[in-house]
Write a structure and sequence with these properties.
CATH architecture of the largest domain: 2-Layer Sandwich
CATH superfamily of the largest domain: Histidine kinase-like ATPase, C-terminal domain
Oligomer: single chain
Main location: membrane
Radius of gyration: 43 Å
Number of helices: 11
Strand order of the largest sheet: 10-11-9-8-6-13
Shape: rod-shaped
Number of domains: 4
Protein name: histidine kinase
CATH class of the largest domain: Alpha Beta
GO molecular function: ATP binding; phosphorelay sensor kinase activity
EC number: 2.7.13.3
Helix content: 40-55%
Distance between the termini: 89 Å
Membrane topology: Multi-pass membrane protein
Strand content: 5-15%
C-alpha cells in the first residue's frame, strides 16, 4: 500500500496492504516453522531448559500482531501453541493433551501469546491514531503556512490548489461559487454540501474526490482531486478527518479573503462617494448664485421680446430651470448627508402636485395627467421644499421615460397606518432586478437611460428624503402591467390626521 507523500513516519513499520492475505498466511507459517526449527536444533544441542525455549514461539505472535492482519495474528497464536506441543513437549511430534503438566504449559503459553497479541494490536492502533492526528496537524500547519499573507480570493485559491496538490500528488482544483453546471456531480455536491466521488456515498465509483467547501452553514464551492489516468483517488491512505479538515480550512480562508475584498471595496466606494459629495457640494454652491441670476434675467426678458425670440428665450429658460433642478438636488444631497433636518409644516397634497406641475410646465408636451386624491387624505406634516423635490423628481422621470402622448397617473390614498402616493407612467418600465439599484447614487443602468439627460441622483434623493421622515419609496409592478410605478409610503407620524379633505379626481 502506498503512503501519502507527506507522511514522513508511517504508523506501521510495514504498512498493511502491500501483500495479499494468502501471502501473509505463508509468512505466518514461515515464522512459526522458523521458531520450531530453532527450538528443535537447540533441543538436539542439549539446551538445558526446554521450557525456556517457549519464548521463541511468542516471537512469531508478536511479529504477526505488528506486521500482519489481526486475523492472522490469532492464527499464528494457534499455530505456535500446536507447534510448541509437537516440538518441545514429550511425547515429541505428538499432539498429546493427557499429560496435566504439558497441558498447563500449553495453557500458559496460549494465555501469554494471546495477551501479547492483544497488547501489541492495541499499541498498534494507538500508534496509528496518534500518527493520524499528527498527520492532520502537519497538513493543517503546512496549508496554514502557505496561506499566510494571502488577502484575496484568487491568491487563497491558487495557494490552496498548489499546497493540496503537493500534499497528495494529485491535481487539485477549487471551484469557488462558479461551480460548472455542465458537471452534474460537482453541482450536486455543491448543492447538497456533501462529499462525492471515490469511496463516498455519492457517486462512489467516480475516480475523483469532491469535497464541499463549507463555512458555517454556507457552501462556498467544491474542492476537486482529479487523479491522472482515471485511477480512483486513494482515500484509504489518509486519516478520515484529514481531507475534510483541510477543505474546511480552505473554505474559512476563502471566506475571510472574500470579506476582506468586500471591506476594501466598500472602503474604496466610501472614499469615492466622499470625494464626489465634496465636489458636488462645492459645484452646486458655486452654480446656484449665477443660475438664479440667469433664470431671473430670462424670465424678465420673456415678456419683452417678440414672438419669434420668445420661443428661443423659453427654450433657454427651460434648460436653465432644468439645470437649476440639478443644482437643487445636489444641495439637498449635501444637507441630507450632513444630517440637517428641515422644519416641517402642514402641506396639502394637491397644492404640492399643482406647484410641481407648474414648475415642470416647460417639459410637459402632449402628456396627460390623471390625479386622484382619496377622500379623507390628511394634510402632510413635512418640509414643503423637500416633498416638492420628491414629487418633482418622480414626475419628471415619468415625463422623460414615458411616451410623448402617454398618461401619467398620480394616486394618493390612505391605509390603516400610513398614506401612499403612486406615480405611474406608460413607458418601458423597470425590470424587477433593477428596481432596487435604481435608488442608489449615480445609478443609470436602465436600457436607454444614458440617452436621456440626467445625473442618476433623483431617485436617490427621493429615498433619502422619504427615509428621513420614517417612510420608504419603492418601484412596484404597475396596476395595468405597463410602464413604471413608484410608490411613496409615509407613516402616520408624517401626517396631520385631524385635517382631511374630500376625494378629488381630475
Amino acid at each position: 500500500m502506498r503512503l501519502p507523500p507527506f507522511l514522513d513516519h508511517p504508523p506501521l513499520p510495514v504498512p498493511r496492504g502491500q501483500r495479499a492475505l494468502w501471502q501473509e498466511a505463508v509468512l505466518s507459517l514461515v515464522m512459526v516453522f522458523a521458531a520450531a526449527c530453532v527450538s528443535y536444533v537447540l533441543m538436539q544441542s542439549g539446551f538445558p531448559s526446554p521450557e525456556a525455549l517457549s519464548i521463541l514461539f511468542v516471537l512469531p505472535v508478536l511479529a504477526a500482531a505488528i506486521f500482519l492482519d489481526l486475523r492472522l495474528a490469532l492464527v499464528t497464536v494457534a499455530l505456535s501453541v500446536i507447534t510448541y506441543n509437537l516440538v518441545l513437549l514429550p511425547p515429541f511430534w505428538t499432539f498429546d493433551l493427557t499429560n496435566p503438566q504439558a497441558l498447563a504449559k500449553i495453557v500458559v503459553l496460549l494465555i501469554v501469546t494471546l495477551v501479547v497479541s492483544a497488547l501489541t494490536t492495541r499499541l498498534r492502533r494507538i500508534t496509528g491514531e496518534s500518527q493520524a492526528r499528527e498527520n492532520v496537524l502537519r497538513g493543517l500547519y503546512q496549508l496554514n503556512q502557505d496561506l499566510v499573507g494571502k488577502t484575496t480570493v484568487a491568491q487563497v485559491q491558487a495557494a490552496s490548489e498548489a499546497c493540496l496538490s503537493a500534499l497528495t500528488t494529485v491535481p487539485c482544483q477549487i471551484w469557488y461559487k462558479d461551480v460548472p453546471v455542465d458537471d452534474p456531480l460537482l453541482s450536486e455536491a455543491a448543492q447538497e454540501g456533501a462529499s462525492a466521488g471515490a469511496g463516498q456515498e455519492l457517486a462512489p465509483h467516480d475516480p475523483r474526490l469532491i469535497l464541499p467547501l463549507i463555512d458555517g452553514e454556507k457552501t462556498l464551492g467544491v474542492l476537486v482531486f482529479t487523479p491522472q489516468d482515471r485511477v480512483p483517488f486513494p482515500v484509504e491512505l489518509y486519516p478520515p478527518s484529514l481531507l475534510p479538515t483541510l477543505a474546511a480550512q480552505v473554505a474559512n480562508a476563502l471566506s475571510r479573503a472574500a470579506l476582506a475584498e468586500a471591506h476594501e471595496q466598500q472602503a474604496r466606494q466610501a472614499d469615492r462617494e466622499r470625494f464626489m459629495s465634496a465636489m458636488l457640494s462645492s459645484l452646486s454652491h458655486d452654480f446656484k448664485t449665477p443660475l438664479v441670476g440667469i433664470v431671473g434675467a430670462l424670465e424678465a426678458l420673456e415678456g419683452r421680446v417678440d414672438s419669434e425670440a420668445r420661443d428661443i428665450v423659453a427654450d433657454g429658460l427651460a434648460e436653465a430651470l432644468r439645470l437649476n433642478r440639478y443644482v437643487v438636488n445636489l444641495v439637498e444631497i449635501s444637507r441630507l448627508e450632513a444630517g440637517v433636518r428641515p422644519r416641517s409644516e402642514p402641506l396639502h397634497i394637491r397644492d404640492a402636485i399643482s406647484g410641481v406641475l407648474r414648475t415642470l410646465r416647460p417639459l410637459i408636451g402632449r402628456q396627460k395627467f390623471r390625479i386622484t386624491v382619496e377622500a379623507g387624505f390628511p394634510l402632510l406634516n413635512l418640509n414643503a421644499s423637500l416633498f416638492d423635490l420628491v414629487l418633482l423628481n418622480l414626475i419628471e422621470n415619468a415625463l422623460k421615460y414615458g411616451p410623448a402622448e402617454g398618461e401619467i397617473t398620480i394616486d394618493a390614498r390612505v391605509t390603516s397606518d400610513s398614506v401612499e402616493i403612486d406615480v405611474d407612467d406608460e413607458g418601458a418600465g423597470i425590470p424587477p432586478p433593477l428596481r432596487e439599484p435604481v435608488f442608489t447614487k449615480f445609478y443609470r443602468a436602465v436600457e436607454g437611460d444614458r440617452k436621456i439627460a440626467g445625473t442618476g441622483l433623483g431617485l436617490y434623493i427621493c429615498r433619502e428624503i422619504v427615509a428621513s421622515y420614517g417612510g420608504r419609496i419603492e418601484a412596484i409592478d404597475p396596476p395595468d402591467g405597463t410602464g413604471a410605478c413608484m410608490r411613496v409610503w409615509l407613516p402616520e407620524a408624517a401626517t396631520l390626521r385631524l385635517a382631511t379633505f374630500e376625494e378629488e379626481t381630475e
